[in-house]
Amino acid sequence: MEVIIQPDAVAACKLVARQIEKLVKQKPHAVLGLATGSTPLPLYAELVRLHREEGLDFSGVRTFNLDEYVGLPSGHPASYRAFMQENLFRHVRFAASHIPDGLAEDIPAECEAYETEIRKAGGIDLQILGIGSDGHIGFNEPASSLASRTRIKTLTPRTRADNARFFGTPEEVPHHVITMGIGTILEAGQVVMLAFGEGKAAAVAGAVEGPLSAMNPASALQLHPRGVVFLDEPAAARLTRSDYYRWVFDNKPDWQK
Ligand code: PGA
Question: Which domain holds residue 127?
Fold first, then answer.
């Protein structure tokens, strides 16, 4: 796994945005896997800027979001559909934008259909991930199968508390979500995980330097041949090899940049 430590979230997200730009220029019909939460906000702001100011064209790009709450009324401001609309989709036109339907009557059928759509699109070229303070990726909570596919999951009390800030009251946070599985995520061509702030430091250390374990779902990235983790200084604070990661980044040969 490649670990890139930057002074702050904005600097990290500019690098990730450049990586996405490179992909989209090479492959105008690329498929992007997108994440929600506070973490990717500077990335989406930078993608909007690249689109507006530098003319980066996403009109051939299809997107798949990782997850969605189950049962939130359509248009609820905390739904991930509304989040994506507000922060990216109303600014940048994509060829298609897929998000699991948390209001589907038949949830298992919706999950299977989501997997089929990803396959029909040719698979995800680059998947963006955040990480929960408990190590979750998507909404794959600790103890999720490392081979899991898109399915319904039950949020832990900790994740519901972490996400309560997006809702009027903590009780309003749904208990259930639809999320891509860890097996689904690992099939992406590249996986880029972002983590910012000291609240993520323990989960990041477990994911990067801890044992591969379903108890830290992000540790599954250790199995991915092209996994990159972008951190700010506080999120990197508990890594034991950060000097090495910095040296590797600062001394990359040109062909690898
Ligand atoms: P956050 O959430 O970006 O809002 O911290 C990350 C996650 O739960 O994956």
Answer: 2-252
